[in-house]
Amino acid sequence: MLLISPDGVEEALDCAKAAEHLDIVDVKKPDEGSLGANFPWVIREIREAVPAGKPVSATVGDVPYKPGTVAQAALGAVVSGATYIKVGLYGCTTPDQAVDVMRGVVRAVKDHRPDAFVVASGYADAYRIGCVNPLALPDIARRSGSDAAMLDTAVKDGTRLFDHVPPDLCAEFVRLAHERDLLAALAGSVKAGDLGDLTRIGTDIVGVRGAVCEGGDRDTGRIQPELVAAFRAEMDRQARQHAAAVAGS
């Protein structure tokens, strides 16, 4: 699945123009961090702006180790109309802390909407900020009752997912997630040139922003519908090529 992250209602309308080419519209606030949380009213407005059948996800933020605070934030996101709730475990330094946070999120979200989808998100460059190891995320997600494990990059300095967790280790992340009946999501300045590796290792959800923004700039560029369409076309091409290679072998 292709997840696209507009930074507000105007970009969400651009996503709506390319709705046939994407699977999930993700609400975040890039100027508040990798998984920066946007306002509840923005989530509501974006939910209203995109087709009813298109899921909306929302980031809760690059959160501290404050389980109660994070649970309330997650409930706010699902009440506002998001059905995918993503939590960036920025301030959790141990797996037990991360599980503690995610268990609260899962209960808060699913008590309100049982069919909502909870994503435990970590960081490929965890070593730079001191949070939990990326390969611990699938087990954290399983122990907490989450539905997916995700990796992004915490520091947006031009480095990318594969600069910190190379494809072979991302493949291990995906394998660990699938062993635990979780979806595996990967993001972090992903480019079209990465799609071959992402397809080969079995990634379930690819998250992008900069790759579909004007000039490739996640901060100053605006999402372009034609770039979303082109990115999806390359995703589909890689999927067909991989399926053919598997069938041939």
Mean pLDDT: 94
Number of helices: 10
Unreliable residue stretches: none
Report the β-strand fraction as a percent range.
15-25%
Q: Tell me the strand order in the biggest sheet.
A: 1-2-3-4-5-6-7-8
EC number: 4.2.3.153
Organism: Streptomyces hebeiensis
Function: Catalyzes the formation of 4-(hydroxymethyl)-2-furancarboxaldehyde phosphate (4-HFC-P) from two molecules of glyceraldehyde-3-P (GA-3-P).
InterPro entries: 4HFCP_synth, RibuloseP-bd_barrel
Give an overview of the whole structure:
This is (5-formylfuran-3-yl)methyl phosphate synthase. Its EC number is 4.2.3.153. It catalyses: 2 D-glyceraldehyde 3-phosphate = 4-(hydroxymethyl)-2-furancarboxaldehyde phosphate + phosphate + 2 H2O. It is an enzyme of class 4 (lyase). Keywords: Lyase, Schiff base. Helix 1 runs parallel beside helix 2 and helix 3 runs parallel beside helix 4. Strands 1-2-3-4-5-6-7-8 form an eight-stranded parallel barrel, surrounded by five helices. Strand 7, helix 9 and strand 8 form a beta-alpha-beta unit. The protein contains ten helices and eight strands. The chain is globular. It has 249 residues and is of the alpha/beta class.
List keywords for this structure.
EC 4.2.3.153, schiff base, alpha/beta, 249 residues, 4HFCP_synth, globular, (5-formylfuran-3-yl)methyl phosphate synthase, 8-stranded parallel barrel
SSE layout and pairing:
Layout: E1 2-4, H1 9-17, E2 24-27, H2 40-49, E3 56-62, H3 67-79, E4 84-88, H4 95-112, E5 117-123, H5 126-129, H6 137-144, E6 148-152, H7 161-164, H8 167-179, E7 183-186, H9 195-200, E8 205-208, H10 225-248
Helix pairs in contact: 1-2, 3-4, 4-6, 6-8
